[in-house]
Amino acid sequence: MKQNASIGNITDLRNSDVQSIFLAFQHFPVNSEETLGLLEEYLSKEEHFKAAVSEISKIGGATTYDFMKRCLSSILTNGFASQSSWLGAKKKKIFQKF
Fold first, then answer.
1. Domain containing 24: what range?
2. Residue pair 81/32 in contact by the 8 Å Cβ criterion
3. Which residue in 95, 90, 78, 70 sits closest to 31, CA to CA?
4. Is the Cβ–Cβ distance between 52 and 40 less than 8 Å?
5. Tens digits of per-residue pLDDT, 44-63?
6. What are the backbone angles phi and psi of residue 36, rounded to the nearest 5°?
7. Number of domains in the chain
8. What is the pLDDT of residue 34?
């Protein structure tokens, strides 16, 4: 694996054969708003975003619910996920606004 540059804790693997977002972004699963911001920064590059979508879509699941549960459990820790909800129900952080 050839690693060219490091931006903070994000490794840039543009010239590498490795396409895995789970290897390229070293903060999985996400456990804080700060780490979520780093992931967002990483995914702002189109090639990183496309590679992530491709890899995550391969996680699969028997139902849509199962697919989402498997994807989110790979991306977010239970602790971080339990502190927020999409619309802020039960006075949790509003995940939609991150």
1. 5-97
2. no
3. 78
4. no
5. 999 999 999 999 999 989 99
6. -60, -40
7. 1
8. 92
Beta carbons of 67 and 59 less than 8 angstroms apart: yes
Q: Is the pLDDT of residue 70 over 90?
A: yes
Q: Please give the Cα distance from 50 to 40 (Å, whole number).
A: 13
Separation CA 33–CA 72 (nearest Å):
15
pLDDT at 25: 83
Q: If you write DSSP's letter for every residue of 33-83 in order, what string do you get? A: HHHHHHHHHHHTSHHHHHHHHHHHHTS--SSHHHHHHHHHHHHB-HHHHHT
The tens digit of pLDDT for each residue in 8-32 reads 444 444 444 546 888 888 888 999 9
Task: Name every residue whose Cβ is closer than 8 Å to that of residue 27 and which is 6 or more positions away in sequence.
Answer: 9, 35, 38, 39
